[in-house]
């Protein structure tokens, strides 16, 4: 009991320290400041966006998620350097990993605020008539917003933690951010005919956006195949898997148990990904009206 | 000089950056309307990779050798020139049509990014920081990628204009990038030539006191700092 209490309190103390470190990181300031300004612009509808806040959650995803990869990579490397300098390992790596993961509460909280702002903006300044195809509910859009914004803002730092554990080399975080953006754009949906249903296995994608067909002034808003509700579950499981793999890096961790947990999470992720592709929303719903501003 | 450049420049990382830049621009060429954020990402990557070229992991040893920082920077410059050539080739291959008829502006963005990355690295190296490029890349690459994705305040602050952006927005963007490039070249020149005003402009000097102050300990701190940290490292 004393051991468990001691470990728990150590994680808590370290997590609070890592939260402070995350809050002090200048790259987080940069992203957070831009997200908040974009929040204000969106809620006050200063940009007159006809799609309201439908595609807004790219802001927390990019400015908290992509930048979070680098922020968390840096914090993890700093934690490792401090541990190496200390010599004798007072705090095991898995405890520091859990504490670092606890710092993701910072981007999560800010992204959650942005999500609430986006929902408010969606209701206060509804989108134009040609944006939401018939039969598509508001909760469908909210699910996309939550997955694309809040969970990506958490997933980015967790990816940075994972990279720092397994690929602690110079420049890895910068290159990873480029690759992350590259793959995300290729899998945003609508790039290829058929709506790329397999894209739900990626960390970020769209379920409601503009069609690829036609040129400027000829696009329609459309849904892409995939169930955003189940996709949220998939993202949560992937985040949990990332955390388990990060903890598993510690040679002193109980790897047999962690392997079983990771295996279960992989099975769950694959199952949820397949379900997100096949349940409910298997075809695109195209809005009959043309988007005049696309 | 060539031997130093061969051993000093992190060629693997530079080649990786150049390869990614070509890949990003080729994807933009394939579908500019959808993949345009990759253009801004490529520009950020150029800045970060240019900074990498000047990282000196053995600064503690190298900075006290007779070769000046200007000599070492000149030796590493071919790597930046190679990046510039790669950028020219990628933009030329993409063609004017794929770049919304604005290939010249896109070219300027890349060159300004190269200059900015080099200037930042040169400036920080002059003050003894061994690997400023690594820090620059870690901040600038994801930040520009995120900016290119979100394009916040695009109507008023067109950093990476799009196909639907107005001619005025493209002109304003190009003017901004040219300004950045000119400022970067000035900063780099000041850092490498140890310009007299240079030491008085840095924050460290302001804290320690102006360089023109008559012989005091503050002046000594101001003038000796670069050498003591190995930045300029003249014999």
Structural overview:
Chain A is mostly helical and 294 residues long. Helix content of chain A is 64%, strand content 4%. In chain A, helix 1 (2-24) packs across helix 4, helix 2 runs antiparallel to helix 3 and helix 3 runs antiparallel to helix 5. Chain B is 74% helix and 0% strand. Chain B has twelve helices and no strands. Chain B has helices spanning 2-8, 11-30, 32-35, 37-52, 59-62, 69-98, 103-126, 132-150, 167-193, 198-201, 203-208, 217-228. Chain B is elongated, with a radius of gyration of 19 Å. Classes of the chains: A mainly alpha (294), B mainly alpha (235). The interface between A and B is medium-sized, with 35 and 35 residues.
Q: What are its keywords?
A:
heterodimer, A: 294 residues, mainly alpha, three-stranded antiparallel β-sheet, 3 strands, 64% helix, globular, B: 235 residues, 74% helix, elongated, disordered C terminus
- Number of strand elements of chain A: 3
Largest sheet of chain B: none
Strand residue percentage of chain B: under 5%
What is the strand tally of chain B? 0
Q: Uncertain regions of chain A: pLDDT < 50 for 5+ in a row?
A: none
Mean pLDDT across the residues of chain A is 90
* Shape, principal axes of CA atoms of chain A: globular
Helix content of chain A: 55-70%
Q: What class would the helix/strand composition of chain A place it in?
A: mainly alpha
Oligomer: heterodimer
Main sheet: strand order of chain A: 1-2-3
Helix and strand string of chain B, N-terminal first? HHHHHHHHHHHH
> What is the approximate shape of chain B?
elongated
Question: Summed up, what is this model?
Answer:
With about 290 residues, chain A is mainly alpha-helical. Chain A has helices at about 1-25, 25-45, 60-85, 95-100, 105-125, 140-165, 170-185, 230-250, 255-280; strands at about 210, 220-225, 285-290. Chain A has a three-stranded antiparallel beta sheet with strand order 1-2-3, with no helix packed on it.
